[in-house]
């Protein structure tokens, strides 16, 4: 039977496990422009991956209004196979506020590369190309980071009160950005909330971010949080900032609140009686445990293995060597190889070691009645 196992392993690749890891990709664009000189573009990047000669969309970023140097908060998570050449394409579109589809959007250009190139360099910058030619001085930079160790997610719910009013005829339109401080002291955008219009006491939507993205699993890593007043021309007004750590955020895990003073450094220097530019409140912090397959197995998860086989004539005559059902006198057919390969793995996690088998489209001897 060992020959059957080896044959099955070769046909299904069960025992030659690939070098697989998950990678997070972040995208930044610089110097993009639009055909309309009177307004700035509303950029969005679409990630595509080549499969069997075709480009298939994997995911896309959010749309950032009126911005020529966008830093997208959307993180692309992809599987990286060391032994494969994975071709990627990052297409940049200008999506107007009237629609969010790509059919009527303006294609601004794109770049092509392999996932291996990004991973090996960790940060890959390329000129934006359109029909083979460079688009001015525009560029796209993609940064890669391996997801390792802690794959848990954290759910955060922020609000604020008494933020500074930056508008003359209405109230501020605040949004919050969270940056992680990297080991090289650079800042990396982790999340950007939605904008709450005309409100000095905003309640932002709850969002979820991986713990790896937020702080690389280091609960004491510095996080820089900034609050802005959104403007339609892309020149957002700075309201204030504060520093935090995930260790501090965890204080909001049991229904409690954690809050920070939002400080504008310029006001703090100029104004004698300056206290703050508002208070930012973390109303909820919830850790979502991401269990691995091994966690389920070690926790007692049972797998039931059930087989269903198609015996219809479309599979060919079992006496014909071209049929998948061919009964070879010396070796198992393809069906048996697959059953042995999968069953050999699953039987260890099946408590009763009983494998139900179903079939349809056959005639069973000796009376050869139809099987449905």
Automatic annotation (TrEMBL):
InterPro entries registered for this protein in UniProt: C2_dom, C2_domain_sf, C2B_Copine, Copine, Copine_C
Entry-linked SMART domains: C2 (SM00239)
Superkingdom of origin: Eukaryota
Family matches, as CDD domains: C2A_Copine, C2B_Copine
BP GO annotations: cellular response to calcium ion
PROSITE patterns assigned: C2
A GO cellular component entry from the record: plasma membrane
Domain spans labelled C2: 6-128, 134-261
GO molecular function: calcium-dependent phospholipid binding
PANTHER family assigned: COPINE, COPINE-4
Protein name: C2 domain-containing protein
Organism, scientific name: Albula goreensis
